Amino acid sequence: MTPRITIVTGFLGSGKTTLLRALLERGAGRRMALVVNEIGQAGFDGPSLGRAGAPPMVELTGGCICCAAGSDFLVAVEELIAMTDPEQIVVETTGLAEPGGMIRQARAAGLPLDAVVAVAAADGLDGALAASPVAAWQLRAADLLVLSRVDLASPEAIAGAEARLRELNPRAPIIRAAMGAIDPQLLFGPRLAPDDPDAAPDHLHLDGFGSFVWEGDTPLRRAALVELMSSLSPQIYRAKGVIHCGDAPWPDELHYVGGRLELTPFRPREPTRPLNRLVLIGAGAEGMRGKVCAMLDGCAEGEARAAAWEARYREL
Prior knowledge:
Elements: E1 4-10, H1 16-26, E2 32-38, H2 45-51, E3 57-61, H3 70-84, E4 88-92, H4 99-108, E5 113-121, H5 125-131, H6 133-140, E6 144-148, H7 155-168, E7 174-176, H8 203-207, E8 209-216, H9 222-230, E9 236-243, E10 252-257, E11 260-265, E12 276-283, H10 289-297, H11 303-315
Parallel strand pairs: 1-4, 1-5, 2-3, 2-4, 5-6, 6-7
Antiparallel strand pairs: 8-12, 9-10, 9-12, 10-11
């Protein structure tokens, strides 16, 4: 039996991976597989989902499967079907994916399409809509709208976000989610939209979004990193990855969205190299690569403290 396809979309940093992690932790109630797409050359969402006990998964990096990596998406679906015979394949798009192209790809390949789920952050919706027209396209195409981060937003912000979502998409139900937690069965409904949105294959050129990867193999000074991220140019809208700081033995997942920084420690299954790896995304990001990478390099611990940390790290 051909598995049904659920598309989970939403702008950069809206909470797509958090939603899927909560789904995996609660149990989906069916044989599931994942396709995870990332705009940058480095993938971070896949390992993050793996730490939550992800089912069989294919990670696609280096472009949106709605356009540049479209053929890779169909190959990934075939690979997952051959590997595990899933009942449901959930596709997490990049934060810059426009849904029209992907919906048309699925239909052209004869894949049964279930709901398009769009995630929006209650405390970041206005910034996302201002950053790119893609954010509104994603929300308008949805059959279900998940309002994330309601545990961190004020009642006024939640009400305002819900009103804005209703303006953009009066058809789709809105489900509030704290830490991504919703009833898993809500994600697996049918595609209800009467019409599919038009594809926009050149959408990445509209807002000039790009990405670059920074790597470093020396533990960082946490205070210096936090100060740097707080003063980062607004051109850098999103950053994510894994970093190690000299004040702790374990790494942190770093998430930065529109000026908001979150560092979440976790215990890895094995040591990672390089110690620090981030992907940074924004309008004209490539032009800022040299400056931002030099600033991140400047957050490294001094030689003596780094050597002492390495000695402790090897013993763990």
